[in-house]
Amino acid sequence: MSTLPLHAALRYVEPLREGGSLPAVVDTDGGVYVVKFRGAGQGPGALVAELIVGELAREAGLPVPELALVEVDPVFGRTEPDPEIQDLLRASHGVNVGVAYLEGAFNFDSRAAGEFIDADLAAEIVWLDAFVTNPDRTHRNPNLLIQGRRPWLIDHGAALYHHHDWSRVDEARTVAPFARLGEHVLLAEAGDPGEADDRIAARLDADVFGRVMERVPPELLSDDDRARHRGWLETRWARRGAVVDGARAAADEARARPLTPRSYRR
Question: Is the CB of residue 243 less than 8 Å from the CB of residue 174?
């Protein structure tokens, strides 16, 4: 049984159509959440990644909005007129994942909000994304919000993408550096990944990984896959020197590249 709070969905407020999974702002009996639905195209696996990475980030001392489980009853959203949303909700009865709604938050842009993320925090965020193989923290799609002059990490459903096909996961792939880290929005401004690793090593260990895995409910994750995830995390943690070396090399390359104009998602 998960130790995360469980809330009942009460009112569908509005869809957030920027994401491919069609999350939505939902009123629950525990407050307002952005809900990621199990019936979306990526399936429950994206919700599992959201929970694992979000809770790992929290244990590592990084700023993540509160995560909760949100129960969608069969009668929820029946009056929603959009047939696409109706289909999504019908496929999402049961347990889904909610991320606390950050009122007044705005999307991170290094040109306007870079002052809110110093080099040490940037290095720890880079470390996290390198460790969990998160491809979704780019200049085009930073998945960082600013609220009250504080940054928040969001949207981790694309991370841990190896878990969509465990048959292809072996030790070499488990411990390999993250090849797509060079696209990271904070890479050029981040401090040393090795120093970030030293700080995070004081906060994470195998026991923490076990507690995090226990927070993922059985409705979303089988016992076999829970054991696979924990084994992957523990193996990658024990051999994370290669991850750090890869992050350092990617950062050096990013700093050496000439600045070029970027287009930003609006």
Answer: no
